[in-house]
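Dear colleague,

Following up on yesterday's call, I've attached the two folding results inline so they're easy to grep. Please treat them as preliminary; we haven't cross-checked anything against experimental data yet. The first protein's sequence and structure tokens come first.
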Amino acid sequence: MSEADADAVDDAADDQVASRDDVWVEKYRPQRLEDVVGHETITERIQQYVAGDDLPNLLFAGPAGVGKTTTAVAIAKEIYGDDWREHFLELNASDQRGIDVVRGRIKDFARTSFSGDSYGFRIIFLDEADALTSDAQSALRRTMEQFSNNTRFILSCNYSSRIIDPIQSRCAVFRFPPLSDEAIREQIEIVAAEEDITVEDSGYDAIAYAADGDMRRAINALQAAAATGQTVVDEEAVYEITSTARPEEVLEMVEHAIDGDFLAARADLESLLIDRGIAGGDVIDQLHRSVWDLELEEQATVRLMDRIGEAEYRIVEGADERIQLEAMLAGLALEGEE
């Protein structure tokens, strides 16, 4: 190999290492509204607002990782182009949730003079707005009214019910559902091709299952699996990296309990919690997703959902995960013996 060829190989290797060091969630974040996957109906309507120079205040509601922040940033880039950072203020309400942030940073940004500015308004993006206190939301509502001529607000939240009605009534509300497995796979295939990663079909299915509609989680899973140095990403690598139980493992645990074999169900649970290090809350989530795959009679399904809901509530309130999950399995086993 010549010296030039060797240098070329070294440069390619350096580029690949640099690519692995990047945060792929940011590297592959869509830059335009038309590139946002899985929410075409929403983005098409917003594009109409942008094209008509008639952007209202917006409220994006939905779970994490479905594209709310990406859509907000894409709006700013389409309106302001390269100047978008100067006209876009992003705040995370979960970090700055009191009334002072509304009276301070938000009002200061909204008061900025627009002399010589051809855009006419700036955008304030308030992420996790449902974390704002009631007083802060009331102050925000007044600020939205006061600066309606030169500021547009984009609010993002997980639960729109936690946003006061006076704010909701001043916004066009868009609800972002979890992304479909097809949308997740479409984006993951693009990332894998760009990063020269081979992913088996079982790997794609595992990523989509582990992501559960969250694109951020899916891309992070792919990057983590690729970082292990494996030449091929398969389902085993994905489940191990994401600390996710295989669907069949969860089903087997519940089936043992329903059949009255509590000891076998408890052994399955211990394998997930202790040997694999999977969080109890994640086990509950996977149980909830697997209920309809059990093909139980309607009344049995209702009882199982009731027990899952009770265990989830107690765990969220601070109860011991292992005890609550064992109690849930014990209850199912007792019903199975009747």
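Below is the second protein, in the same order (sequence, then structure):
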Amino acid sequence: MILEDALLARYDSLLLDLDGVVYVGEQAVPGAAETITTAAAHSVGIRYVTNNASRTPEEVAAHLVRLGLPASASQITTSAQAGARLLHDQIPAGSGVLAVGGAGVSAALSAVGLEPIDASHPEVAQADVAAVMQGFGKEVGWHDLARASFALSRGIPWVATNVDLTIPVEQGIAPGNGALVAAVETATKRTPQVAGKPFPEIMRFAAERVTGSEPLVVGDRLDTDIEGAVSANLPAAMVMTGVSGVLDLWRADPHQRPHYLLADLADLLKPVPDLVWTSHGVSVGEASARVEAGLLEVAGAAVDAVWAAANLIWSQDREPSNVDDIAARFVTGP
């Protein structure tokens, strides 16, 4: 059941990032399946929103089902879909688009009536290319990037599905689509339109399609998920199961600051402790944070202490000198 004072009781739908929130590689984040299943059973709208454009919605849904999650292709929003919608509004129906990336890029283009041209094919007819859409794909290589660069030299539209510099995988942190986009930027001296997070297009697209009118965005990356929610004027919760850590949170710019901090998705079903400003600092539940003689002091349960400290640090004119040492206490995640 969902408690009346649980965070999830405040919203009727969830826009969930995948990598680092629901799963990492082929492994589900502990508690994710149970939480999402409970939410769905109580008629909470569920939409999975991912910057990973390499797979089709059907492939993403099948992966989620294997992990024990309730999912169908109709519940998936990818940055490839958002990118294809951008190009659909800029070039005539049936136009050829050079598709750089995995199968999800081509599928999204076809779905909006555009003709994908495989960038990995050695015989690309440049005259047939009316635009370029670049998304992530593990098989993307130098030849794909070179063909994109050649096409872009003609000044045609260029959409990047996302510019995430890294992605979390089971073995650690690996280069993301942003690293590959940067290579083409260097070669062409051009900057793409970006469909995915942190730009608002994908969040607005997902919010339009989710069942419900009061969605909460949940993500692990401040520079994509949270900033994307802020840019689309949507409330956001950060989970500590992915890329962004304690120091990232404490040093976040205003446009990357979440409304809530969660250890993981299971915290959606728990009560939200009040954040209270006191004469000594900030308290969250039984946790507290204060600055004394320029030094940060925290006490209490990890997530609540980190959140209390975050709000306190954001209010300061100068960062406490010992934040690195204090953050190290939480390096393994709350």
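For the second protein, one point worth flagging: Residues 254 and 314 are 8 Å apart (CA to CA).

Best wishes,
A.L.
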